[in-house]
Amino acid sequence: MSTSILWNENTAVTDFDIDVPAWIEQDISAYDVAAIVQGGCSSGAYMPAVTYYTAGQTMATHGDDVLDYIQDATGELPPADCESWTGMACLFLSAAVEIWANSVEGELSQAIEDAQEQDAESE
User: Fold this and answer.
1) Cα separations in angstroms, 92 against 18, 40, 42, 108, 115
2) How far apart are CA 35 and CA 120, in angstroms?
3) pLDDT per residue rounded down to tens, the chain (123 residues)
4) Phi and psi (nearest 5°) for 89?
5) CA 12, 14, 16, 18: dihedral to nearest 10 degrees?
6) How does DSSP assign 54-109, residue by residue?
C-alpha cells in the first residue's frame, strides 16, 4: 500500500486505534509515519531518535524493550560500530522506530481510508 494517503493526514496514529510503543512519542502522526517510511529517522523525519540526548534518555528508560522489538522483528540487532553510547542509542532507537513505521504503514493507510469513507457516508 502506498504512503501517499498518509502525507495528508496529521492525525495522531493512536486516534486510529493503532498501538504506538512507549518508546515512540504518543502523538506521532500519520504524516510522521510517511516521512519515516520514505527517508528514515536520520532524514529528520523523527528527531527524538537521532538527537543524542533524547535518544539516550529513551534508551535509558526503554532500552530493553527497544532491543527486544528489533530482535523480535528481524532476528538480530544491527551492527553497532558507534563510538559512543548515545550514538548506539540513536542507532538502535532509529532502527526500532523505522521497523515499527514500516510495520504499521498498511494498517494506518487502511484506517485512514475507512475513516474517510465513513465521513463521506455521514455527510
Assistant:
1) 22, 13, 12, 24, 33
2) 27
3) 456 899 999 999 999 999 999 999 999 999 999 999 999 999 999 999 999 999 999 999 999 999 999 999 999 999 988 789 999 999 999 999 999 999 999 999 999 999 888 888 877
4) -60, -45
5) 130
6) HHHHHHHHHHHHHHHHHHHHHSSPPP---SSHHHHHHHHHHHHHHHHHHHHHHHHH
| Domains held by the chain: number | 1
86 CA to centre of own chain: 19
Closest CA to 28 of 38, 16, 67: 16
Instruction: Report whether 9 contacts 28 (CB < 8 A).
Output: no
Q: Crossing angle, helix 85-122 and helix 52-74, to 10 degrees? A: 70
Determine contact, residues 2/67, Cβ cutoff 8 Å. no
Residue 102 C-alpha from the chain's centroid:
8
Domain that holds residue 55: 4-122
| Joined grid coordinates for residue 121 | 457516508
